[in-house]
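SEVERITY: medium
COMPONENT: batch folding queue
REPORTER: lab tech (J.R.)

DESCRIPTION
The queue accepted two submissions in a row. Attaching both inputs and their returned structure tokens so the on-call engineer can compare them side by side.

ATTACHMENT 1
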Amino acid sequence: MPLREITTEEIKTYQDDGIVCLRGLFSSEWVEALRQAAEDSMQNPGELHAELAETRKEKGRFFHDTFVWKRNEVCRNYVFNSPAARIAGAIMESSKVNIFFDQWLIKEPGTVQNSLASRFAVLDDCGLASQHTLVCVG
């Protein structure tokens, strides 16, 4: 279960804007488990990973990996046992949610601001673009 219910205002924002910042829905245990899973993925990346800052010859580290849930037990547990599917269903007003794609976009502190994640002003509004934070988008 999410730590709180999705509000009608949040649903309307998602319907109107196609994006909404949802806070306070996951327990600290889920957040910490995914932070560790992200660190593990950066140490042992999958075959589809990319070092985006390195590719662009920029300072810092901007890590990308995908289909992590297929090889990482913590991520698989998150997909099937966390409140994520229920949250996605509630915000989309859908009775069914399928996982299609997962993705890490991890930008470490000190990485130049010329990366994809920092171009989304909404991440700044949520306080996520400037932190070493896991961002899950459904």
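ATTACHMENT 2
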Amino acid sequence: MMNIGINGVEQQGNMYTIHYTLEQPLPFDLHDVVMVQAGDYVVGSVRELNEHQITLYINEAELQWGEQAVIQLAFSPTVSIEGSAAIIEKLGYFPDFQQSVITHYDIAKEQVELTMQLADPSVQSSVKLTFLEAFDIEFSPPDARMNIIAEMDFRYEVTDLVVDIEAAQGLSGSFFCGKIKAELIEG
């Protein structure tokens, strides 16, 4: 957890560039998911970073910023998801899966598999996520017509990964897993 002084914030759509004062660079990598508390409490994905500013993709239209912020790592897809580098190379980012449609799911005893059509209209691709060594698996019943993700959160808890899926419609759930594999399916 890091406390930073905010010198200013620039917003372009869902991209927020936070100019900060800190004696050292923030210890994050591109595409890391971070939690920020600065007036509002939000989760964002790191898109650019240098010693004086960080640019985050945050799925919020307007935010309130104070003079100070607390920022901490929530999840690093490049470290924790096998195959994320190939997706980032192709798309330029790792998706947050908000408003993605679940087109296939397989929920087994120790493995959960989800294929999601990405919501971005400029991307005609799906991502298949395979969660291995899964346990404490709890899901709501799926909707026979359509299953849409409102929010998918990944976070660390001791040595495991926690996955929470909030539904806009249909299938939602949560579980722990030991490993995540991702594959981009084009077309």
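NOTES FROM REPORTER
The longest helix spans residues 84-91.
No errors were logged for either attachment.
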